[in-house]
Amino acid sequence: MGDITPNPRLQGWEMTENNSATSLAKQWAKKYLQRLIDPEESWETGAPKTRSLIAQQLLQSIRSINLQAWAKTEALLSQEVKRHGINYKLIDPYEIARDAYHIYEQALSAYAEQLTPQRLCVFISPDIGSIREKYTAIDPRVIGFVSMQFHYCGQLLLEPLSPPEREILSDYFKVIDDHLYIPLQRFYDISAHYDYHSPVLESIRKLIPPSSEIARKIASRIIELYPNYCCHSGLLNDSTVRVSSIRDVEMFQVYLWICVLENSIAAIQQELFPLCVMLYPPLKVRWELVRQMLHLLGNELQTRLTPQQQALFMPYFQSLWELFSPEVFPETLEPEDPDKLA
């Protein structure tokens, strides 16, 4: 245990494009390289031996890291689990630890083998999708506990690394974080039932490439509105908080796409909303921030979609807005500069 051996499923792997799901998976994965000037060269820097050694050392420490992550997750969410009446039997620390080891082993293997996060992103999606499906089968809120455990595990694994090493490996771990919080495999699976040229898929394909840009834009705008707001992990402008905020905006976008594809708001009602109600209070994310994010997201949809395409999205977006409306969560948080209201 602890050795990083070449993964035959990763080596020489190429994705086919014979259905809508794989096409969308590839489109989503490409976003991981959009911000790089020379993506392939960027991920090939550093000696393979050094990467392999780092990966082996981290994998050998994951057992103790899992224990530390569990303590942090328990401290954050134990009261919420009680408050929401979640059955603790559904949260098996040993099973979660095994799943974490399996997933981080794949990420570290990809890192050691000089593969890009782009390739890891598409390859690992089915495995994490299976984990999500397993933990959401009985009570979707359990995925919140599991996601925080994985998140803290990744953070603790990065701590001993030098800043350059941490920066590179954090993008591999972000793939894990995103796929645990964001139901991408569910999105890919339901998209496979549509014709590639259907109006719904064409509308969503229009939104996938700029989805990260939209998320960054919205997160930056909220920081402008609330520059001194401090959540559980720090100020909104802190790097860790900003990354999580961007991921959450992307999460809301994907859940909205799923609702459009499934012609149902079940994904939001049964999974996203309960997850937010469980996680946001202990993370000190106020509901007014969520409403501001939704307001800005609605503006983006109106800007980027035709009226016909908007008609596909707006019924579900309206339902999403109503779930987090002031009538449901009456607390408010005024922007620190009223002139900056979106």
Low-confidence stretches: 12-17, 37-44, 337-342
Order of strands, main sheet, comes to 1-2
Measured between the Cα atoms of the first and last residue, the distance is 53 Å
Number of strands: 2
Derived from helix and strand composition plus strand pairing, the structural class reads: mainly alpha
Quick one: overall form?
Answer: globular
Rg estimate, integer Å: 20 Å
- DSSP strand content: under 5%
Number of domains: 2
Largest sheet: 2 strands, antiparallel
Characterise the protein shown here.
The longest helix has 24 residues, at 239-262. By secondary structure, the chain is mainly α. The protein has helices at 20-30, 39-42, 48-60, 62-83, 93-112, 117-136, 142-158, 163-181, 184-191, 199-207, 211-225, 239-262, 266-279, 287-304, 307-323, and strands spanning 230-231, 234-235. 68% of the residues lie in helices and 1% in strands. The model is unreliable at 12-17, 37-44 and 337-342 (pLDDT under 50). It folds into two domains: 1-181, no CATH class; 194-342, Globin-like (Orthogonal Bundle). It is built from 15 helices and two strands.
Task: Summarize this structure briefly.
The chain is an all-alpha fold and 342 residues long.
Task: Give me some keywords for this one.
mainly alpha, 2 strands, 2 domains, 68% helix, 342 residues, disordered C terminus, 15 helices, globular, Globin-like, two-stranded antiparallel ribbon, 1% strand
